[in-house]
Design a protein that fits this description.
This protein has 440 residues and is an alpha+beta fold. The chain has ten helices and 13 strands. The protein has two domains: 186 residues, GAF domain (Beta-Lactamase); 153 residues, Histidine kinase-like ATPase, C-terminal domain (Heat Shock Protein 90, 2-Layer Sandwich), CATH 3.30.565.10. The structure holds adenosine-5'-diphosphate and magnesium ion.
């Protein structure tokens, strides 16, 4: 396979005579025109692409330009993605069998990159790279990308990206003009690529800040509401106890007609409901850390499943648990965690009225464990996903929900130094993910 560069002027005969001088002039004129056209194209493309801040759109633009302008079969772009190193990862391909992937890398200290760096921005042919470096992994990656030429995108003498082009569809070789075009284009666009990358990481930072702010707001709201609710709950609790006692006494009297029995039954149920709300309110704002100890999360889940088994059976909900063995312990309260798991799974059962499935899964990372509870219900409407943590927020019909379950979960998980998050899973329903620091 011929991979060497040929000058367009190589085709001109060596000894000039008048007709051939004319031919040479015509040829030179053609080349000049092509060059002006190339430069104009580069100018137009750069003008447009330098204002694109979305990395994906930008890379698409660059690849399409290369393919269109060079008439190649395909192209690929590597760019620096991370803040931590200058590794170049495969970010975009077109017309190739290889899909972009983070792990397809040309590392910052690789021989390929050192070689490219030594070329000071000039494109290098695959055959030359292969000849100099031999059959190493990164050369094999270039081969898989059908690389014919590799063009660096440098910024202040640092390679921030690599453009790889395949052979031309026409089968003809690359002329010097082509390589010049690619080199100028790559250079022009390296600033745009770096800008887009910085913009992306700013966007990510902003998103993280927004989440942190929302969580703070939620914590503040809970704290303010907590003080008030705890006071009200205490006030309500005492008269509630008295009412319950009297109800008990009325039920024990034998002189009641059927109607009164029914009424007393209704009042008792409603009083239980109030008591339930009060208990949840008090739970939410009780000081917590004091009852913490070494807690085996998996046994807490097993105990919760035991408690829930009848309820789940009645609702025709099956629960599958699949956790890594062994699953780590946390420093926390088994009772409180049980309440979190119970609240989540009762919600899931409630949202699958004609039966369904809950999957409990988990994984362990460096000093944290993650638990997922996924159900097969309708999921949570995206516009409500941030509201569900608010106390008293419920979409259940009047009298059915208190809107306190998830607020309780939130404050318990927070008290354990963890995070809780709700998402929807395509093809399933809602997923609640709890992250907790593991016990060291
Ligand atoms: N598994 C779930 N599937 C769909 N929506 C859910 C689920 N869990 C919670 N939600 C939403 O969050 C709201 C608040 O839940 P929660 O705080 O437990 O209060 P409640 O259960 O009393 O409604 C629910 O009313 C519902 O809109
Ligand atoms: Mg609930």
């Amino acid at each position: 396979m011929a991979r060497q560069v040929r000058k367009s002027s190589d085709e001109a005969p060596e000894r000039p005579n008048p007709p051939s001088q004319l031919a040479e002039l015509t040829e030179a004129n053609k080349r000049l025109k092509r060059k002006i056209f190339d430069l104009y194209t580069i100018f137009e493309i750069s003008k447009h692409l330098n204002s694109v801040l979305n990395t994906e759109t930008l890379l698409d633009g660059i690849i399409l330009t290369c393919i269109g302008q060079m008439g190649v079969n395909g192209a690929a772009i590597f760019i620096v993605r991370s803040h931590e190193n200058d590794n170049l990862s495969l970010a975009k391909t077109k017309g190739l069998a290889v899909e972009p992937a983070k792990q397809l890398l040309i590392k910052e200290d690789s021989p390929v990159l050192r070689l490219i760096q030594s070329m000071h921005g000039k494109p290098m042919s695959y055959s030359e790279i292969r000849q100099r470096l031999g059959d190493i992994e990164e050369v094999r990656l270039l081969e898989a990308l059908e690389c014919e030429f590799l063009i660096p995108m440098s910024l202040q003498n640092r390679v921030r990206g690599l453009l790889s082009v395949t052979r031309k569809i026409s089968g003809t070789e690359f002329f010097e003009d082509d390589l010049e075009f690619l080199a100028i284009l790559a250079n022009q666009l390296s600033v745009a690529v770096e800008n887009a990358r910085l913009f992306d990481s700013e966007k990510e930072a902003l998103e993280r800040l927004r989440t942190a702010q929302l969580q703070l707001l939620q914590a503040e709201k809970l704290a303010a509401l907590g003080q008030l609710s705890a006071r009200v709950a205490h006030e309500v609790n005492n008269p509630l106890g008295i009412i319950k006692n009297y109800l008990l006494m009325i039920r024990e009297q034998e002189s009641q007609d059927k109607q009164s029995v029914e009424y007393v039954q209704i009042v008792t149920e409603e009083v239980d409901r109030i008591a339930n709300i009060v208990r949840q309110l008090l739970d939410m704002f009780k000081p917590r850390q004091d009852s913490f100890s070494d807690t085996d999360v998996e046994s807490v889940i097993d105990e919760t499943l035991l408690l829930l088994s009848l309820h789940a059976q009645k609702g025709r909900v099956t629960i599958n648990k699949q956790l890594p063995d062994p699953f780590p312990h946390v420093y926390g309260s088994a009772e409180q965690l049980k309440q979190v798991f119970l609240n989540l799974m009762i919600n899931s059962c409630d949202f699958m009225p004609s039966g369904g499935r809950i999957d409990i899964g988990g994984d362990v990372d460096d000093h944290v464990l993650r638990l997922h509870f996924t159900d097969w219900g309708p999921g949570i409407a995206p516009e409500n996903i941030e509201k569900i943590w608010e106390p008293f927020y419920t979409t259940k019909s009047a009298g059915k929900g208190t809107g306190l379950g998830l607020s309780v979960c939130y404050s318990i998980v927070k008290a354990h130094g963890g995070e809780i998050e709700a998402t929807n899973v395509a093809g399933a329903g809602a997923r609640f993910t709890i992250t907790l620091p593991t016990k060291r």
